[in-house]
Amino acid sequence: MTITITHTPTDGTLVEGTTRGDGTNTILRTAGFRWFRTLGQWGIAGSRDRDPQRVRIEQAAAALRAAGHTVEVIIDDTHRDPATVEADRATRARDRADALAATADRRRDQADAAWEADRRATAALPPGGEPIKIGHHSEHRHRRGIEKAQQAMGRAVAAERDAGEAARRADVASRATDRRYNPETVKNRIDGLEAEQRADQRELDGHTRTLFTTGDGTKVVDSRTPATGERRDLLTARMAARAEDIAYWAEIRRQQIAAGQTGDYSRDTIHPGDQVLYRGQWFTVRRANPKTVSIPSIVGGSWTDTIGYHKLTGHRPTSTPR
Q1: Could you read off the pLDDT of 48-85 as tens digits, one per residue?
Q2: Name one Pfam family in it (predicted).
C-alpha cells in the first residue's frame, strides 16, 4: 500500500496510507511528525498555511522507503489570501472553544454527580461521628462505610479538579481570536513579518557585512552572492505571499487606530515631558527614541525603562511650547 505525504495550504502536511503495526509510527515520530487523534492521521503540527517543511518531509519519505514502504510526496506550495486564512482560523477556534465548552459541561455534571455520591456515602455512616466498635458485628460494615466515603470524596475532588481545568481550557480557547487581534500583538506581528521580508530581500540581492575588525584594523566581512535558481524562486514566492500578509495586518492596524483601540504614536507625536499610559499607569517621558520612549523605572528604580510606541495606550502632551 502506498503511503502518501501531502502538503496543502488548507490542511497542512498530512500522511495517508499508514496502518497500525506497520512500523511507520516510530519513523514518523522520529522525523518530527505527530499523531492527530481527531483526524486519525500523522502530520506536522502547525503546518497549515505555512511553507512546506521540505527537508523534514523528504527525510520522512526517505526513512519510510528505507523501511520498505512505497512513498509518494505531493506538495502544493501555493498560498491562500490572508483574509481566507484568518476566517478559517477563526472558525477552527470557535469549533475548538465549543467542543471544550461541551467537555467542561460534562465534567461539571460528573463533578456534581461525584459530590452527590460523596454526600450519600457520608450520610450512610453512623451519625455523630460514632467510633468503630472493635469486635462488634457492625465493625466491618462501619469500616467499609468509611472507606467508601473516603473513595467517594477522592473521586469528587478529582472530578472537581477536572471540571475546573476543562472550564479554564474552554475560556482560553474562547479568547484565542481576541488575543490574536490584540493591537499590541498585531503590531508585533507586522514588525516580525517586515523583519523576515528584509532578511529575504538581503538574501535575494546578496550582501556584504562586516563581522568584526581585528586588532590591526583588518575588517573580516561576510559576502553573499545574490540567490539563484530554485532558491531565488522560493524566496520570490515567499516574499510575495508575505507581502500580502503584511498588507492584511497593516489594514487591521489602520482600522484599530481609526477605531481608537490603539494609538499611532511615534517620536513625531510624543516628546520629552509628555505623559504616556502603559499598563494602566501614567509615566513622564524622558526621551523619545526612534521606536521606543524612555520612562522612569516601572518598578521604582533609579534607571529608565524603554517601551515600544505600540505598547502605549494613552498620551498626554505637555503644555510647554516647543
Answers
A1: 999 999 999 999 999 999 999 999 999 998 999 999 99
A2: DUF3560
